[in-house]
Amino acid sequence: MSCKILVTGGAGFIGSHLVDALIERGHRVRIFDNLDPQVHGKEQNIPDYLNKEAEFIKGDVRNRIELLNAIKGCEVIFHLASVVGVGQSMYEIRRYMEANTLGTAILWDILANEKHSIKKIIIASSMSNYGEGEYKCVKCGDIYPELRKKEQLKRRRWEMQCPKCSKTLEAIPTKESKPLNPTSVYAISKKDQEELSLILGLAYNIPTVALRYFNVYGSRQALSNPYTGVAAIFSSRILNNQPPVIFEDGLQSRDFIHVSDIVAANILAMEKEEANYQVFNVGTGRRLTVLDMANILLKYLNKSDLRTEIVSKFREGDIRHCYADITKIKSLGFKPKVTFEKGVTYLTEWVKFQSALDIFDKAKDELYKKGLVK
Ligand code: UD1
Fold first, then answer.
1. From 215, 291, 297, mutation site for ligand 1 pocket: most ligand atoms within 8 A of C-beta
2. CA distance linking residue 270 with residue 370, whole number of Å
3. Model-level pTM?
């Protein structure tokens, strides 16, 4: 059955792919997006990739009137509008809390106080809610460690240690039940979005689902944005014949998920009633080190002569390992389809046609200037 769907942040990386999939399924889609210059450039043009069949409203989630108008007549909201730079959030605190936390508060303020026809909301949350991932100590059992201490990192001892017996910990898949421990302003704002939505959804009987995305990559990830993910940074760098610069020792790991699998999870969350009022991890369940990821990119871009550059420095606030336990979302019928090896071919096919800019230098400058790389 088709319905009218609002996608906030629908001109962005993930939102625009979701819009395509919804339209393909026969839904009528309205995009609400402020075309943030950090993502869309200072001209704030509507991106060429935007689906022509979607209705587009330029507006900001911090503006109650604009958002109220956008919600009118819709039955489902995918709330993806957010600012997303973890490092940047540590010095643009107000901007992050306003766009992410206040923006979500305004959305719920409208739903609580105005007439509307919304029947379901799906929120884009993040693995950053967890802070460090879940670990196991051979002696002490399951451990939810804090971030590594600065003294440890200064000694270039990268692996996590058991807070009880100091043995090196083994990373295990992170479950939704892991206590949350956000370690950046961005992560706090994502936790706010999730908690506000689940609590208010229950209070007003509006089925709500929060999806905790792991490390998403794919086409349309803003290469002009220095705070974009590591896969996009490395691809742009390799295509400029520059070696990928790897922090720590490269053995830190993440769960890299292709944007098409994130879209599939969003659609399941909308369609399945069992998902209502629940939180789900959205990852592949597979763990890849940053070094392996860089080497796969070098291979697929036929640049095996370039070597990775391992700098033994660390980024303030970085976690060591986090990958998803996807048992819960699998019970809805989710199955990640795109392996990293396949996904990089999609990513690099797209990156090749982007203007040859190297976003790493911009990212590095920002972080070094603020003393966030040591
Ligand atoms: C963070 C957030 C995540 C968010 C993502 C993109 C946390 C725990 N996670 O993920 O929610 O979606 O940012 O905004 O806050 N690296 C290099 N060289 C580079 C760039 C990065 O080695 O040039 C390393 C980093 O040090 C890190 C890993 O790659 O160890 C992943 O970094 P990144 O892609 O920024 O994502 P996260 O920090 O995992």
1. 215
2. 40
3. 0.95
Ligand 1 pocket (Cβ < 6 Å) reads: 84, 86, 126-128, 184, 187, 215, 227, 229-230, 233, 245-247, 252, 254, 290, 315, 318-319, 360
Closest approach atom of ligand 1 to CA 215: 12
Task: Write the CATH number of the domain with boundaries 4-133+174-369.
Answer: 3.40.50.720
Average pLDDT, the chain: 94
Q: Write out the residue limits of the CATH 3.40.50.720 domain(s) in the chain.
A: 4-133+174-369
- Vertex 145: Cα angle to 228 and 165 (nearest 5): 145
pLDDT higher than threshold 80 for residue 355: no
What's the token pair of residue 316? 């303030």
Residue nearest to atom 25 of ligand 1 (CA): 247
Q: What is the mean pLDDT of residues 93-100?
A: 98
Residue 254 predicted with pLDDT over 70:
yes
